[in-house]
Amino acid sequence: MNNFGISRESLDKVYQILDEMKADNENIPILVEGKRDKKALQELGFEGDIIILNSGHTLANIADWISEKHKKIIILTDWDKKGSYLAGRLFNLLRGNDVVCNMEYRRKLGFYLGSHISTVEELSMLSEKVI
């Protein structure tokens, strides 16, 4: 176990998932809730387009804007009640605009992080591999 209470095996899986998502992010933007989420991903080495949801626009307007610019997107909202609501709502809005939505990374990270990390922002604690 490490400082987060996450097993070594789960932590290895989390790093593998983050590496896969980083590679996809070279071509597919990631949609996060706020500025600190974007910063956390950048600290983890993400260099692709990261779109911030909380920008003062409605979910429908954001979905329309995204669908004009992108055909695929990775939805990575927090693993709390609000984040789950936002993920589901955005998935439906974007899918209605023919955008392919990847929520697998969110699902897999949530599975391996369990109750140890509940926000995207907290992922920055993993920026230096914890062994």
Write up what this structure looks like.
The chain is α/β, with parallel strands linked by helices and about 130 residues long. It has one domain: Dna Topoisomerase Vi A Subunit, Chain: A, domain 2. About 50% of the residues lie in helices and about 10% in strands. The chain is built from 5 helices and 4 strands; from the N terminus they run H-E-H-E-H-E-H-E-H. It has a 4-stranded parallel sheet. The model has no long low-confidence stretch (mean pLDDT about 90).
Present the secondary structure layout.
Elements lengths: L7 H18 L4 E3 L2 H9 L6 E3 L6 H11 L2 E4 L5 H16 L3 E3 L1 H10 L18
Parallel strand pairs: 1-2, 1-3, 3-4
Helix pairs in contact: 1-5, 3-4
Question: What is the quaternary state of this protein?
Answer: single chain
Sheet with most strands: 4 strands, parallel
Strand order of the biggest β-sheet: 2-1-3-4
- Corresponding CATH architecture: 3-Layer(aba) Sandwich
Kindly estimate the percentage of residues that lie in beta strands according to DSSP: 5-15%
Low-confidence stretches: none
- Shape, please? globular
Per DSSP E runs of 2 or more residues, the count of β-strands stands at: 4
Report the radius of gyration as a whole number of Å: 14 Å
| Structural class estimated from helices and strands | alpha/beta
Overall number of domains: 1
CATH topology: Dna Topoisomerase Vi A Subunit, Chain: A, domain 2
State the helix count. 5
- CATH class equals Alpha Beta
Q: Helix coverage percent of residues?
A: 40-55%
User: What is the average per-residue confidence, as pLDDT, rounded to a whole number?
Assistant: 92
SSE run: HEHEHEHEH
Distance between the termini: 8 Å
InterPro entries: TOPRIM_dom (IPR006171), TOPRIM_RNase_M5-like (IPR034141)
Pfam families: Toprim (PF01751)
Protein name: TOPRIM domain protein
